[in-house]
Amino acid sequence: MHYGEIITADPANGPGIRLSLFVSGCTNHCRGCFQPETWDFNYGPEYTEETEERVLSELKKDYYQGLTILGGEPMEPENQPDVAHLIMRMREDMPDKDIWVFTGFTFESDLLPGQRKYTEYTDSILDNIDVLVDGKFILEKKNLMLRFRGSENQRIIDMKKSRRSGKVVLSPLN
Question: Nearest-CA neighbor of 135 among 114, 146, 151, 123?
Answer without folding.
Answer: 151
